[in-house]
Amino acid sequence: MDISIGPFVAGLLLILVVVILAKSVQIVPQPRALVIERLGRFHTVMYGGLHVLIPFFDRIAARVDLREQVTSFPPQPVITADNVVVSIDSVIYYQVTDPMHATYEIANFIQAIEQLTVTTLRNVIGSLDLEQTLTSRDSINTQLRGVLDEATGRWGIRVNRVELKAIDPPPSIQQAMEQQLRAERDKRAAILTAEGVRQSQILQAEGEKQSAILKAEGQAQAAVTRARGQAEAIGTVFQSIHEGNPTPDLLSYQYLQMLPELAKGDSSKVWVVPTELTAALDSIAKGFKPNK
């Protein structure tokens, strides 16, 4: 019986040694760190690689992720300086830089960051009115990041970035803002329409002006051409008359032939009879009398 118990005990001891050795050897991934305690006190931080623990003396107190992490907090009601309650969603980008402080300085740093974010948001937004809150996201993000990074530095945590996902005013304020935006759009549309009509009228007036100028120039050119033609005709007639050397009797006879043409029309006529014509008519009358 003793012979049968010996191998069994030896097998148990071998299994126990293998388990202890397996627990003693730790392979730490690159983006993680292990916080090691020895006999209940902090001993060291093990980063990526192969490490050996002393069985029954060393234990893993915490496993810490060293990568940048993102945490989104639920919407928080915040009151602005003009007493408007807005709902704000925020996102925090943080990274653990000191695993020992992140483990021992604070019990739950995620919850602590959330509460600190809410408090800082209320302080920052409380000093701004609604319009400044909606238009100053970059400034709010910068202030939040500065306060959070300073507060979380002693916890071994670095806040890389803070973003406000949404800033939602109450429904009544949203409706008023939509009405204001609609009124602004209608105003800009009316201004653009009026400007278009004004520009069209200006262009039409310029076109009419140019047309009138061109028409006047054409009429003036036509009048000049007619006057030049009439002057040339009168000159030609005058030259022909002088070259023909007409007698007073012939001129008087031609004047009498033109009288019916001058009398045509309904308008009143004013007759101007030169004294030379009277003398010419006397001579014509004498010419038609029979000789005695």
Care to describe what's here?
Its main location: membrane. The protein has 292 residues and is α+β, with helices and mostly antiparallel strands. The chain folds into 3 domains: 46 residues; 102 residues, Band 7 domain (Tetrahydropterin Synthase, Chain A, 2-Layer Sandwich), CATH 3.30.479.30; 69 residues. 59% of the residues lie in helices and 22% in strands. The protein contains 8 helices and 8 strands. Strands 3-2-5 form a 3-stranded antiparallel beta sheet. Strands 6-7-8 form a 3-stranded antiparallel beta sheet. The longest helix is centred in the C-terminal third of the chain and has 74 residues. The mean pLDDT is 79.
Name its key features.
292 residues, alpha+beta, Tetrahydropterin Synthase, Chain A, 3 domains, three-stranded antiparallel β-sheet, transmembrane, Band_7/stomatin-like_CS, Band 7 domain-containing protein, Band_7/SPFH_dom_sf
Q: What does this entry show, briefly?
A:
The protein has 292 residues and is of the alpha+beta class. The chain is built from eight helices and eight strands, in the order H-E-E-E-E-E-E-E-H-H-H-H-E-H-H-H.
